[in-house]
Amino acid sequence: FAELHTAVVGLPVATSRILPGLVLRRDFAACCPAEGDLRAVLVTEPLRPALPTPEVEFVIDSQGQYQASLCWITRRTEAVVQHLQSNNIKLLLSSVKQDAVVIYYAKLHGISVVECLSSEEITLICEITGVSPYSPLSDNLHGEIIDTTVVTFCQPLLLGSERCVHIGLPSVCAFQPHCLILCGPVGGVTEQHAAAVQGAFTMLQQLFKTVDL
């Protein structure tokens, strides 16, 4: 329920509504509008590679080596984003904050980016779509990216003074995701309404559980 409702303070209660899809309480890190269905991919790690790893000791002996290392990182990052573009990826949903160079190349290649999603949001999207997060650093950047989903729409949404992202997701089960927008003049009102709605859903779950038995 926490990921399927959004509380908005400072608006009349009458403006509360139900929206199809999911509302992500983040703004676009990169917004590249596109029409029609969009292929999207989930990531839980930075697309910009880091030179040192837990298993490898990395030693730089000169400024020239350092600059060469930075150039390699930049080229590798561009190659990762180009690989996404070659697979017709138009939306990147990330649980981590991506480096500025990733955002730059994403804009350059027409890929929208939403970052800093919570682990609960990522888990919910995985459950709805049936896909797993894509690991770009373990990929050889050849071939098709399998773990993608089709987003039926992706658009900015303004809730009060907060900029959000509204996406439509196809479901692999009977569940069709919708998001409840609960508005109120103050936080206490929206919290009361949210608690009441959650309580009603809990009661219905218990009712239908009894009927099934």
UniProtKB/TrEMBL annotation:
It comes from the Eukaryota. GO terms for biological process: chaperone-mediated protein complex assembly. InterPro entries: BBS10, GroEL-like_apical_dom_sf, TCP-1-like_intermed_sf. Coiled coil: none annotated. This is BBS10 protein. The lineage of its organism: Eukaryota, Metazoa, Chordata, Craniata, Vertebrata. It comes from Tricholaema leucomelas.
